[in-house]
Amino acid sequence: MWTTWTTIHESYGLPRAANDLRQYLELNGIRVRLSNQKQGTLRSYALQVPIHQKETALRLLGHYKKTIK
Q1: DSSP state of 53
Q2: Which of 9, 44, 3 is nearest to 25 (CA)?
């Protein structure tokens, strides 16, 4: 069975924020894939989840961002 992935967060520079979000989602039972691309001297990191878990992941992502402010 193929998994269709969708990007829910993208960050540039250091992977610190993407790694923190990845760990938070994994602790809450969401499958996560972190992919990176190099664009010249800049790196971008995309946090991807399976499409069937997108709504839950976005809700958790919103909750995470509210708690760190």
Answers
A1: G
A2: 9
